[in-house]
Specification:
Largest interface: A-B, 39 and 39 residues
Radius of gyration of chain A: 18 Å
Strand order of the largest sheet of chain A: 1-2-3-4-5-6-7-8
Shape of chain A: globular
GO molecular function, one term (chains A, B): 2-isopropylmalate synthase activity
Organism (chains A, B): Paenibacillus beijingensis
Strand content of chain A: 5-15%
InterPro entries (chains A, B): 2-IPM_HCS-like, Aldolase_TIM, PYR_CT
Protein name (chains A, B): Nucleoid-structuring protein H-NS
Structural class of chain A: alpha/beta
Number of helices of chain A: 12
Number of domains of chain A: 2
Keywords (chains A, B): Manganese
CATH topology of the largest domain in chain A: TIM Barrel
Oligomer: homodimer
Chain lengths: ~325, ~325
C-alpha cells in the first residue's frame, strides 16, 4: 500500500456485518476474544453490532444480542475498556433515537448511520442528535453504484454543512472496480473538503481488499474490514490482508491469525460467506445479493447457469442494509 | 476495467497451472469440455499443459498426460481445432527442444518459456528455436518481486534484441500490489518498447484479478486466467471475473459458468486451491508457497499461528515453476 499507515484507522465489522450471516449468533466468548485480539493488533474501532430497535423490526426473536445492542449487557461483555473504541451501526427507520444514551453513560464511542441517498437529510438529523449526545459520527451512504449525479450533489450540499465527522463510500453490492473507487473518492474530496472519508467494500468480485487499498491510497482514513472477510454474502475486506500489507505498520498480524484459527475456521464450517459464484453474479450486475442468498438457501444452490440466465432476463432493485 | 477489450487476449491456464494442484489428473472429457467452453466464450488461447520432457524430471510416473504433452495424443483429444489457439509452457532445464515439432505438424500455436531472471539468456535461445519452428512465443519471467534492478536491466537488453513476441510479468508468489504492477508495467514498457506484454498473477492476497486489471489498464495485452481461479496454491486470476468485467465485451460469460457448474464445483470438493491463510502468509512474505503447501498436506494444516511464527523467524527462497 502506498498510503502511510499513520493516517489510517481500521473499523473491524466482524460482529455487525458478520451478524448478517449468522443472525448475530456469536457467543459472548467469541466477542470477548475478538475484542482482546483487536486490541492486541492495534485496531482502532470494533463495530460490535447494530443499535436498531426491535420494536421497529419484524422477525427479531431469534436474533443474537449484537443485533439490538443493550448498553448494560455490553458492560457485562466488556467489563474493562481498552484502546480499541466501540462502534454501532443504525439504519434509518429502524432506530429509536431514545435508545441512544448520552456517550458518558455508554461504552460506545462511535455511532454510524447507514442510509440510501434519498434518506440523507433524515440521516443527518440523527447524526446531529448523536453528535449532541457526545458521540463520534459517520454517515454511510449505501448502494453508491446506482446513485445519479444530481442526487449525489444535493446530498453533498447537505453533508458539507452538517456536523458529521466521517462520510463513507459504501460499495453495498460489491460491484465497483478500483478505477470507480478512485473516481468516487476524488468526487467526495472535491465536494466535501472539510470531511474525513471512510470506505466499506464488499468482496463479490474479489475486489474488497483492492478497492480498500485504492481508497486508502487516495487518502481515505477509516477503512472497514472484518476478520477472515466475514460479512453478508461475499463478505468484506479481510482484516488480515489490510494488516499484512500496511507499510511501516503499527499493527500486529499474529492476534488476527489467532482469532481466525480459534474462532473463524470452525465458524466457516457452519456458516457461508466469501467468493461464491451467485454473489459474483449479483455483484457483476450491480444488484442486492438477496436473490443469490435465496439461491444458496435452496436445493438449487449450485445451479449457477440457470441463476445467471434468470437474472439477466428481468431485474431486481434496492432494499435496506439489514435485509 | 478502463482498458478497451479490443487489445486484450486471454490465455486460460486452467489445465497447465491447475495441473500443479491435481498432478494433471484431468480427464479427456474435462479438457474437451473446457476447450468447447473457451471457444464459446471467445477466449483466444488455452494453455493445455506443459511440454517438458519426462526424462529430465524425477517423480513423473503418476502425472496426467497434460504434464508432458504429446502431439499425437493431443490430436485425439482435440480432433477439430476451432478459434481458440493452443499453448504449452516449458521450463528451462526441463524441456528437450527436440520434442517440439515444427508448428505445421503440431496443434500447438504458442510456446511459452518460463525462467528465472538468471536464465533469461538460456530462455531466449529456446525462444529462438521455437520461433524458427513457426510458433508464437512468450518469455515468462517468474518471481519478479525478488529481482534486483541491475539484473532486470541486463535482461531487458537481451530481450529487446530477441525475437520473442510477448514478455510476461509473473507474480509467482502472489505478493505484489496493484501499485507494484503499475510500476513494473511502466518499467517494462520503457525498456521494451517493441515488445507486447503479458501478465500472470497469483491470488495469495486476493489481488490476482485486481492486479490483472491494473496491468490491462496500463496496456498489457495477454492476460492469464484460469476457470474458478484453479492454479497452484492460492490459484490465479479467475477467468469468470475477467469476462464479467470486460467492458464492451466480445466475451460471453455463460459458457464459463457452465464449466464451473459441471466440472469445477465437483473438482473443488476433492482438490484445494484459493484464498487459504497459509498461502496468504507466504504471499505477504514474498516467498514460494511450498512451505504452505506442505503445511496443508499435514495434520497441522490449520495451525496458522505456529506456521506464521515459524516463517517469520528464518527464511526460505527460490525454486522452479513446476515445484
Amino acid at each position: 500500500m502506498n498510503a502511510k499507515a499513520s493516517h489510517i484507522k481500521i473499523v473491524d465489522c466482524t460482529i455487525r456485518d458478520g451478524g448478517l450471516v449468522n443472525n448475530w449468533d456469536f457467543s459472548v466468548g467469541f466477542v470477548q476474544h475478538l475484542y482482546k485480539c483487536l486490541n492486541e493488533v492495534g485496531i482502532e474501532y470494533m463495530e460490535v453490532g447494530y443499535k436498531n430497535s426491535p420494536k421497529l423490526l419484524k422477525n427479531t426473536d431469534a436474533a443474537g444480542p449484537w443485533r439490538f445492542l443493550n448498553d448494560e449487557f455490553l458492560r457485562t461483555v466488556i467489563p474493562e475498556k481498552k484502546n480499541t473504541k466501540l462502534s454501532a451501526l443504525v439504519d434509518i427507520g429502524r432506530v429509536d433515537e431514545n435508545d441512544i444514551l448520552p456517550r458518558g453513560q455508554s461504552l460506545l464511542d462511535l455511532i454510524r448511520v447507514a442510509c440510501y441517498i434519498h434518506q440523507v437529510d433524515e440521516a443527518l438529523e440523527l447524526v446531529q442528535v448523536f453528535h449532541d449526545r457526545g458521540y463520534e459520527t459517520t454517515l454511510n451512504i449505501m448502494a453508491l453504484s446506482g446513485v445519479n449525479e444530481n442526487e449525489l450533489m444535493n446530498a453533498f450540499e447537505a453533508i458539507a454543512s452538517s456536523v458529521v465527522d466521517v462520510v463513507y463510500i459504501v460499495d453495498s453490492y460489491g460491484s465497483l472496480m478500483p478505477s470507480d473507487i478512485n473516481a468516487l473518492v476524488e468526487k467526495f474530496q472535491t465536494h466535501l473538503p472539510n470531511k474525513r472519508l471512510g470506505a466499506h467494500m464488499h468482496n463479490n468480485l474479489q475486489l474488497a481488499f483492492a478497492n480498500t487499498v485504492a481508497a486508502a491510497d487516495k487518502g481515505v482514513e477509516l477503512l472497514d474490514a472484518s476478520v477472515y472477510g466475514m460479512g453478508r454474502a461475499a463478505g468484506n475486506c479481510p482484516t488480515e490482508l489490510l494488516i499484512a500489507r500496511m507499510k511501516n505498520s503499527k499493527y500486529r498480524l499474529g492476534p488476527v491469525l489467532d482469532m481466525i484459527e480459534k474462532y473463524m475456521f470452525p465458524l466457516r464450517e457452519k456458516e457461508e460467506w466469501g467468493y461464491i459464484i451467485p454473489y459474483m453474479i449479483t455483484g457483476m450486475l450491480g444488484e442486492h445479493p438477496r436473490s443469490a442468498m435465496a439461491l444458496r438457501n435452496s436445493a438449487d444452490k449450485d445451479k449457477i447457469v440457470d441463476f445467471y440466465n434468470r437474472l439477466t432476463a428481468p431485474k431486481a432493485s434496492g432494499g435496506n442494509s439489514e435485509d
